[in-house]
Amino acid sequence: MAILKLSKIRRIYRKGDNEVVALSGLDLEVEKGEFTAVVGPSGSGKTTLLNIIGCLDSPTSGEVVYDGTPLKALGEKALADYRKRHVSFVFQSYNLIPVLTVRENVELPLVIEKRLKPAEIKARALEVIAEVGLADKADRFPRELSGGQEQRVAIARALVKEPYVILADEPTANLDSHTAEEIVELMRKVNAERKTTFIFSTHDKLVMQHARRVVTIRDGELVSDERKE
């Protein structure tokens, strides 16, 4: 069963008297454990698609279903709670909070959720920090880390709540080629070991090469869907 299903997704924005069609009747299904890159030229609709998958935006028409739950059946608060619990993000700019340590940055999603006790939150955070290779950096601040290390913290923060899907928007854009390779390999390792679903929006050929599925969007429409062995 698909963990994510988008059916006939349209997203139209209004600019004055004009309509801009960002997505035009797009259909997409994603199975658990996929490592998928969404690619296409600037203005193709990639970011709009990720925003809709990430519950940051709603389609003008069509349906998004997560693990059997139709999102349009949820109210605004319920949708925000659903996103907070089940969807994680990794951005090109890392988006770490500078006054928090590595551990505190990683703990933050669980602190906000308020589902676990403090000791459980700390233990889970330290586990994923070790998993991304930063066990000796748990008490450091972002300013004391390299860009690659900051992105590892961002990945740990995304993993800590065990989401249905991690959405990565150009996660290698601010990294040199060697560090980008390390980060993509890390995400592949997490994907293989945890069966965590990753969906990337990217222009990076490195990410496309490592992806097991490449979905190409142009002018708001899905124009190709390539699966690799």
Architecture overview:
- By secondary structure, the chain is of the alpha/beta class.
- It has one domain (34-46, 74-227): 3-Layer(aba) Sandwich (Rossmann fold), CATH 3.40.50.300.
- The protein has seven helices and ten strands.
- Helix 3 (102-113) runs parallel beside helix 5.
- The chain starts with a strand and ends with a strand.
Could you outline the blueprint of secondary structure elements for this entry?
Elements: E1 2-15, E2 18-31, E3 35-39, H1 46-53, E4 61-66, E5 69-70, H2 76-86, E6 87-91, H3 102-113, H4 118-131, H5 147-159, E7 165-169, H6 177-194, E8 197-201, H7 205-210, E9 213-218, E10 221-227
Parallel strand pairs: 3-8, 3-9, 6-7, 7-8
Antiparallel strand pairs: 1-2, 1-4, 4-5, 9-10
* pLDDT averaged residue by residue: 93
Order of helices and strands: EEEHEEHEHHHEHEHEE
Helix content: 25-40%
Q: What would you say the CATH architecture is?
A: 3-Layer(aba) Sandwich
Instruction: Give me the side-by-side strand order of the main sheet.
Output: 6-7-8-3-9-10
Derived from helix and strand composition plus strand pairing, the structural class reads: alpha/beta
Span between N and C termini? 20 Å
Task: Work out the strand percent.
Answer: 25-35%
- Which oligomeric form is depicted? single chain
Which consecutive residue ranges, at least 5 long each, have pLDDT under 50? none
Number of strands: 10
Largest sheet: 6 strands, mixed
CATH topology: Rossmann fold
